[in-house]
Amino acid sequence: xxxxxxxxxxxxxxxxxxxxxxxxxxxxxxxxxxxxxxxxxxxxxxxxxxxxxxxxxxxxxxxxxxxxxxxxxxxxxxxxxxxxxxxxxxxxxxxxxxxxxxxxxxxxxxxxxxxxxxxxxxxxxxxxxxxxxxxxxxxxxxxxxxxxxxxxxxxxxxxxxxxxxxxxxxxxxxxxxxxxxxxxxxxxxxxxxxxxxxxxxxxxxxxxxxxxxxxxxxxxxxxxxx
Length: 226
Prior knowledge:
Blueprint (H helix, E strand, L loop, with lengths): L14 H11 L3 H20 L6 E5 L5 H10 L4 E6 L2 H14 L5 E5 L12 E7 L10 H11 E12 L7 H12 L11 H7 L3 E10 L2 E9 L3
């Protein structure tokens, strides 16, 4: 039987394994991935266009660069919340925010985005970059439904993620092979970003595709109906 190239690979490593891995990487994560991810995060933030006074959530805040940018955008009257599974990342992000003098505008929590610890209709906007593709395939719609629940009617969602292609090039095929062979080391994989958000009931506003080392990245801005 021929290989189904449209199939999304599963994430087989446990969340505890992921937590342990990111705890270990937290001190040097910026050296490994920070610069390569920055331009994609920046485009996503530009499209999300957070305004002063808004209440915003970042899922997978990592070392805190986006939370810092969001804290500057919301101003003194807004509030930024962040969620991540890694205590190591939490420590690095808190130190970054404290150094910038913006800790008072940001509340960081440890937790799982499949069970957001926030009320319904709480946020004006949600941002996630290079995080949704870390969840196993059955959990992706759960995470997106949680985002939808926590967003106000008309609230915006911006997802930046590695993108699955119906006709994958060589780099994408090699990356997916490496993910399946070494799931703990290569723990994320490309997904159908816009399709996933639309299936969760979001209305797509804009989609941007950009290459990263020969791998496709999708930046999808959507909104919650209402």
